[in-house]
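Re: export button greyed out
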Amino acid sequence: MSATQLIVIDTPPYGDWRGREALDMALSLAAFDRPVALLFRGEGVNWLRPGQEGSAISQKTVSRNLGAARMFGVAEVYADSLALERFAVNGPDPEAEAVVPNAAFYGDFSQVVQL
Amino acid sequence: MTDHDATTLHILNKHPDHTRFRACLDAMAPGDALLLIENAVLALADVAIPLPEVTYALQADCEARGLSAHRPREVEQLDYIGMTHLTDRFPRLISW
Amino acid sequence: MSETAVSAVPGYTIVITGAPYVSQAPATAFAFCRALLDSGHVVDRVFLYGDGVALASALNTPPSDETNWTDRWQELLVANGIPAIACIASALRRGLLNEQEAHRYERVAANLTGGFTIAGLGEWVEAVATSDRVIYFHGGA
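Workaround output, generated via the alternate export path:
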């Protein structure tokens, strides 16, 4: 088991603030130099769809915050492979590693946090 | 560390049709335990829902929902003190 | 937490992310927190995040025949000297302000109830690094 904390986002990028506040947790850990990874599971994979334009609903484009996450030290970004397929998210942006979120996957992280 | 070193207590509060319910079961490894709280205890009323071997339920939530005395399946019910004993035993807690 | 105190039981941080009167989270967390204290545990801190910050509003006014979770939590925290923090980003967005923030943003009033402070997510990062157990109580059940 690594010392890395996993933050899970399983809510869509718009229509709900939980994903944004979960991402803030990941950014905060990174800001304090704590190892952190992100998993987009279920409907959360819609965060990774290219071409988002939040301004159409007077909101920030959250996928840009996600782009910043790597810069701020969120080294690992994972995405639920079945959900990527189901929601037709191709060529995720930023590039995320497709995984099956099962016991073996979660077992690699010191803590798992989802809002 | 205890002898439960890498094992996890999964604390599930979502109703059985919530996507987190299935996601939680998928995340369980051998040696892990499941604690059903709040609306997750409704799973005790539905025998079709597969539950892991080591499953506990919060007694107060069962009682509130009329599931304490008459329920179609038996799992160990814990009061809140019992819940603290459980969370003490497992070094890793995941809330769903 | 101290080097000299030899404790048989782990110390806890409680994180509440579900709002009162919307979710059961603050109620379950309250019963669990009281059970921890009754069984000789140390509760290092309570952290409110996301919708959970609504618990710290002094303006919550449930009908008199319903539990006032804000008052009950406040009593428990103060009686046991447990530090309780509402995340500043979650709080400001949802209209939960202390005097200092109300002044800074020129708002008409402050509504943070006693027993709670407002601070950043760094408090949560600190909790994760130092508490033996961090337990989350979510909404959306």
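The interface with chain C takes residues 11, 13-15, 18, 37-40, 58, 60-61, 79-81, 83-85, 87-88, 91, 93, 95-96 of chain B (CB under 8 Å). The button fix ships in the next patch.
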